[in-house]
Amino acid sequence: MTNQTMPRPSIFFRFVRGWNKHKWSYFFIFPSMLLFSIFTLYPVLRAFVLAFQKVDLRGSEWAGLANFEDIFGSKLFWSSMQHTFVYAIFVVAAWLLTSLVVASLIQPLPNRIQSLFRGAFYLPNVISIVVISLVWIWIFEPQFGFFNYLLGLVGQEPVRWLQNPRIALWSIVLSTILIVPGSGVVIYSAAIGSIPKDYYEAAEVEGANALQKLIFITIPLLNPTTLYLMVIYTIAGFQIFERVYIMTGGGPINRTTTIVQLIYQTAFSDFNFGRASAQGLILFAIIATFSIFQFKLLSSDVEY
Amino acid sequence: MTMKTLAAKTYERQSVRNLRKARKSLPRILILLLLVTVAVVSLFPLYWLFVTALTPASSTVRMPPQLIPENPTLENVIEMIRISGTGEFDVPLTGWSIKMPRLLLWFVNTAFITLFSVGFHVLFDAMAGYAFAKRKFPGSRLFFWLILAALMIPGQVTLVPLYLMISKFDLVNSFAGVILPGLADVIGIFLLKQYMQTLPSELEEAARVDGASEWTIFSRIIIPLSTPALAVTAIFAFQRYWNSFLWPLIVLQDPDKFTLQVGLSYIHTSEFGTNYGLLMAGAALAAVPMIIFFFAFQKYFMQGLRIGAVKG
């Protein structure tokens, strides 16, 4: 009866009621969502449009797949892909290895010494890559640099670390892996610390040595951590820019150009914004593949 | 029977432990030695930065290099300040400008951009984190999903569209052009949401019953309870903005507007680019605040990493 006499609240009324109930929630997310829409969402959508346009400072016109055709037909693109992959693969492998080794060597030490080491290994990681790269240029300096001084001590000829086209990329890789990634050390060390001691004691009763314990207990139990670090380091590796920009500028003869360096050059030296956007999308595709991986990893319940 | 095996096991374990102690002392020294070596290699570039910055210019280009500076001096820093020239810092909104050496100007610019960005960042992230953690509203899942998706987008994708936008609004070469797009970063929202979800809801509800406004609940209850997570968010944001390079490099074109990182790369490509004493002095100026910052907040750095490792 009442149902028939009382009309359903109008859409307008329900909207007002909903608004009154939820206005504070929208107020709280408003600044972030506004900034996010203007400075992330819109630019991402725009990048998809720009990638199919011919754009310069004067204006834009539709170009179909021309940008992608140009990119995939360009030697420099493929060599910068190659440089980026080489850099990422070697750096990720070395970072995982060194941080795992350091974290497991730290583990048996007393707590205070452990945190001292963690601090020492983390410290260089808070410094900007620009500063670190400038120091490396100085260390790599052919005449008075520290590395060639060390080579001289063992009677070797000086090496032109950043000037020799065949060596430059490897010098950049070397400069990256010689600084132990502090994040890896801290994260591995936390993960190792939460492995139950019983496992190791049981293994000792069975007569396992330190190496066997590492291979059969520690490493398998650290799988989720390793996967996590591998993904974030790979993503970081693919985005390498500052080191290249500062240390070599992509040279000598483009032998150290990486994808992001190429995007930067295409956009801000050649002012070819369409092609740069297309290159950005290709990088996006590569990184998204790895991120989806990470997403799956994080949404599954990883417990240590 | 069980007693017997238990006793046997305890005995076994004890003997294993004694054996371990006896065998451990030598390997332990070796392990320490190895760790110290790796740490020395890892810290060497930083050490070399300060040694070179403090070595008199004439001794920088000398073989063998001085591993420990014989006559440490600040002359490189002073010379660096001199050659960088002078510039003016325009105090925003007042029309005042302050004349100072450019190196210090870059320092002030960086500090200004960083503090502004961190402040707004933490406030906005906390507000959004609170809404997503504690409040149910239509569209919350959609908005949060958008944020998660945004975490996957590398900054280089939006580089060109953002630059075009900034030049359209005439923000090239302005601090606003550097700061505004940087505020769209969403990782802090994610971190704070995760933390705020763990807070009990009773306090909020009690305050609401007592007639407290929603803003009071947020600022008087949620914020104080979330201090550790806010500190972690602020600290990582500080590091990110202080060290930020690519975006300021694109936006800022007038040397008076440069940040330290952009200024350093500018000096590196200038006529003084091969004077490593000077270059390292400038680089040291960019590094020192981060080092002090690290030692002051080391605890939060480590906590933040662990939160990141468990929850992304």
Offer a quick outline of the entry.
Chain A has 304 residues and is mainly alpha-helical. Helix content of chain A is 71%, strand content 2%.
Q: What is the mean pLDDT of chain B?
A: 86
How are the strands of the largest sheet of chain B arranged? 1-2
Helix content of chain A: over 70%
> Helical segment tally of chain B?
15
* Beta strand % of chain A: under 5%
Which fold name fills CATH's third level, the topology of the largest domain in chain A?
MetI-like fold
Largest interface: A-B, 100 and 100 residues
- How many structural domains of chain B? 2
Number of domains as seen in the coordinates of chain A: 2
Low-confidence stretches of chain B: none
Task: State the total count of DSSP E strands of chain B.
Answer: 2
Low-confidence stretches of chain A: none
Query: Globular, elongated, flat, extended or rod-shaped: what is the shape of chain B?
Result: flat
- End-to-end span of chain A in angstroms? 59 Å
SSE sequence of chain B, one letter per element: HHHEEHHHHHHHHHHHH
Please state the CA-atom Rg of chain B, rounded to the nearest Å: 26 Å
CATH level-two architecture of the largest domain in chain B: Orthogonal Bundle
CATH superfamily of the largest domain in chain B: MetI-like
Report mean pLDDT of chain A, rounded to a whole number: 88
**What do we call the CATH topology of the largest domain in chain B?**
MetI-like fold
